[in-house]
């Protein structure tokens, strides 16, 4: 691939001998991610489980291109990510890679619906009826006009999941997306994510330290 366009799809993300630079001089336990070859394929679901400090958030940030402090190679459809220009990364983040960081990155002074619309108004990806349905299913419709900063952390996670889905993607990266959700809301969130991923033919990469997203047929990867 010599260019990235809106009609292009990321079919695979490959890691070859990757390792965070901070781990280079350390002895790390056996990993199915670091210092090996791992291929994520579009249309499949992956669950990366790791203890705290294992580098899962770093991995997600590497794939999204907001951090580059790693050794080894990261490839999109066989192309080294280090060769991508800034405008290509920007297009990847607008059209091909959705990302929910562990910190959520919500605007606390904006309401629940304003946080969602801030993303959806840029992408025009989801209609209001679908957003309303997600809010209802995740039990936060009654918090629609509540500032995000006044919502509980579990409510904020549900809000952030909806916002992350308000864009087209080939892969969605979810860093501990349900760490504060009970099993019922975890299951509902997983159903919504899986439905949208299926609709787009997209892949899901989710991380966990003990409360995994309850995706059916997820491929487990130990970090």
TL;DR?
By secondary structure, this protein is an alpha/beta fold. It is built from six helices and nine strands. Helix content is 32%, strand content 21%.
Strand content: 15-25%
Largest sheet: 5 strands, parallel
Q: How does the overall form come out from the CA principal axes?
A: globular
Radius of gyration: 17 Å
What is the H/E string?
Answer: EEEHEEHEHHHEHEE
Cα separation of the termini: 29 Å
> Reading side by side through the largest sheet, how are the strands ordered?
6-7-8-3-9
* Count of distinct strands: 9
Overall mean pLDDT? 95
Topology of helices and strands:
Elements: E1 12-20, E2 37-41, E3 45-49, H1 56-64, E4 70-76, E5 79-80, H2 86-95, E6 97-100, H3 112-123, H4 128-137, H5 153-164, E7 171-175, H6 183-200, E8 203-208, E9 219-222
Q: How would you explain this protein's 3D organization?
A:
The structure is a single chain. With 223 residues, the protein is of the alpha/beta class. It has helices spanning 56-64, 86-95, 112-123, 128-137, 153-164, 183-200, and strands spanning 12-20, 37-41, 45-49, 70-76, 79-80, 97-100, 171-175, 203-208, 219-222. A 5-stranded parallel sheet has the order 6-7-8-3-9, sandwiched between helices. A 4-stranded antiparallel sheet has the order 2-1-4-5, covered by helices on one side. The longest helix is centred in the C-terminal third of the chain and has 18 residues, at 183-200. 38% of the residues are buried. The model has no long low-confidence stretch (mean pLDDT 95).
């Amino acid at each position: 691939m010599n260019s990235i366009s809106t009609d292009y799809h990321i079919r695979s993300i490959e890691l070859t001998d990757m390792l965070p630079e901070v781990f280079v001089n350390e002895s790390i336990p056996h990993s199915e991610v670091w210092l090996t070859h791992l291929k994520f394929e579009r249309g499949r679901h992956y669950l990366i489980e790791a203890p705290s400090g294992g580098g899962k958030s770093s991995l997600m940030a590497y794939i999204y291109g907001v951090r580059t402090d790693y050794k080894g190679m990261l490839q999109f459809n066989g192309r080294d990510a280090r060769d991508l220009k800034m405008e290509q990364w920007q297009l990847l983040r607008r059209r091909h890679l959705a990302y929910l960081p562990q910190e959520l990155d919500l605007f606390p002074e904006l309401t629940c619906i304003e946080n969602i619309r801030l993303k959806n108004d840029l992408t025009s990806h989801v209609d209001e009826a679908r957003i309303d349905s997600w809010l209802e299913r995740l039990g936060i419709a009654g918090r629609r006009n509540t500032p995000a900063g006044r919502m509980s952390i579990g409510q904020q996670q549900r809000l952030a999941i909806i916002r992350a889905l308000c864009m087209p993607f080939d892969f969605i990266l979810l860093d501990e997306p349900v760490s504060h959700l009970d099993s019922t809301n975890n299951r509902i969130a997983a159903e919504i994510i899986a439905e949208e991923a299926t609709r787009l033919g997209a892949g899901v990469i989710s991380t966990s330290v003990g409360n995994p997203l309850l995706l059916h047929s997820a491929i487990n990867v130990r970090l």
